[in-house]
Amino acid sequence: MAEQRERRVKMTEDIEKLRVLLPHWVEHNEEHARSFREWAERARAAGEEHVAAHIEAAAEKMIAANADLAGAIAHVGEGESHPHIHHHHHGHDHPHSH
């Protein structure tokens, strides 16, 4: 009985975390897509049309991924921002707005 209760509590905590993480991931993907598009333009200006096309395709995939994340948000809802959940490291530097 206690194990089932612990499992339910853990699942509830995970869903609460997802309510915060999912919108953050959407925003993060949008930031990357904007950056990709800027760099695609730079590549195009440098005469690298094929490189630009690949980078633009990556940007489109990032935005397409957001449609699936939005679907997940529709099922779990959006939560309040919890600072302890936002402590993460992506291995690259860029500003985050929360």
Give a description of the structure.
This protein is mostly helical. It has a domain at 19-79. The protein has 2 helices and no strands. The protein has helices at 2-45, 49-76. Helix 1 (2-45) packs antiparallel against helix 2 (49-76). The longest helix has 44 residues, at 2-45. It starts with a helix and ends in a 22-residue tail after the last helix. The relative contact order is 0.16. Mean pLDDT is 84; it is low at 82-98.
Percent of residues in beta strands: under 5%
- Could you name the ranges where pLDDT drops below 50 across 5 or more consecutive residues? 82-98
Count of helix runs = 2
Structural class per helix/strand content? mainly alpha
Secondary-structure topology with pairs:
Elements: H1 2-45, H2 49-76
Keywords:
single chain, 98 residues, mainly alpha, 2 helices, rod-shaped
